[in-house]
Amino acid sequence: MAALSVTVNGATVEAEVEDRTLLVHFLRDHLHLTGTHVGCDTSQCGACVVHVNGRAVKSCTMFAVQADGGAITTIEGLAKDGRLHPVQAAFQEHHGLQCGFCTPGMIMTAVDMLARHAHPDDATIRQELEGNICRCTGYLNIIKAIRAAAEAG
Amino acid sequence: MYTAPFRYLRPKTLAEAETLFRESSDARYIAGGQTLIPTMKQRLAAPAQLIDIARIPSLDFIRREGTMLVIGASTRHADVAASPIVRGAIAALALLAGEIGDPAVRHKGTLGGSVANNDPAADYPAGVLGLGATVKTMRRAIAADAFFTGMFETALEPGEIVTEIVFPLPLRSAYAKFPNPASRYAMVGVFVARFGNGVRVAVTGAAPCVFRVPEMEAALAKDFSPDAIAHIAIAADGLNSDLFGSAEYRAHLVTVMAKRAVAAALL
Predict the structure, then answer these.
(1) Chain A interface disruption, residue of B8, B106, B183, most A CBs within 10 A
(2) What CATH number should be reported for the domain whose range is B172-265?
(3) CA angle B161, B162, B165 (to 5 degrees)
C-alpha cells in the first residue's frame, strides 16, 4: 500500500492505495468520480483522459502513485458555480456527442488542446484528437464544437 | 487490478535509483510508462519493484552546447516538440517528437524511455541513429551505432540508466514517417541527416531493429537529392511482415520515405 496525497478538482485528497492501482480506478472506484471512463483499456481511445498538473494524460496508462503530490482535474471539475465550461457548453450547443461515452475524454482533450492552441485550424484539431476515438459522431460535430469554443474563448 | 502486484519506489537521485535496482530482486525502471504500463496491464511484464525515475530533476532539460544539442532522458516528447531550442537547432527532431503517439502520450513518454525500450517501430531510434547521437548513462557514453543492438535490445546493462542524449547539429535533416493509421507507430520512418563530412540515413519500423542504409548514404553524399536514391531498393529479406504490410511493401516504403525525407530536408 502507498500513501497518496493529491488535489482533485481543487480539493485535497489523502488516500491509501495499492501500488498497482491505476489512476482511472482511483478516480472512479475510490473517489466515485465516474465521469472519467474506461474505454479501450489499451491507451488508445482517450475516454479516460484527465489533466495531471495541467496536462492531458490517459488515466488508464498511469498509476495513481505516479500522481502523488500533483493536481488532477477531471470532467467533474470543469463546471464552475453550476455553469458549464465553455467547451462543455459548445459540445452541447453543437451536438458534439451521440452516446456520450467518449465525451468526457474528448472535452478534457479539447480543453488541453485550446490551452496550447488558442485558435486551432481544423487540421490541427483533427491532429490533436488523434488519441480520442468516437464511434458515433463521425467527429464532424466534435470538431465544430471545439472550433466554436475556440472562437468564443 | 490489471497488473501483477509490485512495490513502487521513487528515489530522489540517480545514485539512489541505481542502489535500489541493485538491491531489488526483479525491478524495472519507469519514466513515462507509456509502453511499460500497457505491457504490465497485459501481464507481459510483471516486475516485483517499479523504480520511478521520472521526477529526478537532473534528467529533465534541453540545452544547446556549441555545435551540440543535449536533451535529458526524462524530457517528455511534448516538451521536445515545443522547445524553441530544439526547433532552432534540429527542427526535424522537434517534428519527430510531435508525431509520436498522441498528445496525451507525448505528455508522459520520455526520450530516454523510448530509446532504452528500442521498439522496432518507435520514432526516436531513427532520430538518434540518423543524427549519429551519443547516448550517455551514469557509467559511460555509447555511440548510437553501438547502442541499438536488436529488437527491444540495446547496449544497456542491467540497472544502467540513460541520463542524456547528445545530438550533433546537422547542416540539414528531416524525418519522413508512414504511420500505421491506428497506432501511429511507424510502418516505416526514415531519418536523413546531412553533415559536413557525410550523410546518415536511418530506418525504423521496417526491420526488427533500426538500421542504416550505407548505399543511400554514399549516393546522397555525392548528390543530396531525392533522385540520387530513387534507384536504390532495399532487400525485403528479414524485414517485418504483419497484417499491416508485407516485407516487400515495407522495402518499397523505405525508398519512398527516404526520398520524401531528402526532399523535406531541402526545403
Answers:
(1) B8
(2) 3.30.390.50
(3) 170
